[in-house]
Amino acid sequence: MNIVPELDLGPAEHLAIKHLRNAAFPEHQSDRSYYKQLPHYRALEFQGTKLIGYMGLDYRVMNLNGEPIKVLGIIDLCVDTDFQGKGVASTMLTRVTEYAQEKDVDFIILVADDPSLYLKNGFQCFEAETTWLRVHEHKNYGVAEERLNDLYVKPLRGQIVTNGALDWLGYMY
């Protein structure tokens, strides 16, 4: 798996990401390689020259219970249908975890409708009163406040957190 800075991606990678992302998320089609915002990095898994796995990675500071935390966010993890159920996503999550453990990251965080993959890969449910910038189609709609129960975190520095107040200090993935 390659972790590539956004600025280093070329048109071919953007096109491959767009097709894989749109196939995985038909309810969130986009004519670009991202949905809400460009991520800082892209994690790309290839079989030969074919992109078979993808996730966006967003590095930022968030506010958890009044304290700043450094977070690596996972956005739009998806695997080509021909390769699903073969451990590709779990391998990608393991590699991203190893990458983040070597960096200045407190938590890996993501939002998921189906948590089964993430729970078996060491993530834990995190219920939070959250605030974030509501963004859609390159327009912000102000700050949203809502209790969320579909957040999943993986602490990397021994922290234990199951609930609290989380300010995304930006858009929600």
Automatic annotation (TrEMBL):
Gene3D superfamilies: 3.40.630.30
Domain N-acetyltransferase: 4-142
Molecular function per GO: acyltransferase activity, transferring groups other than amino-acyl groups
Descriptive protein name: GNAT family N-acetyltransferase
Provenance organism: Vibrio owensii
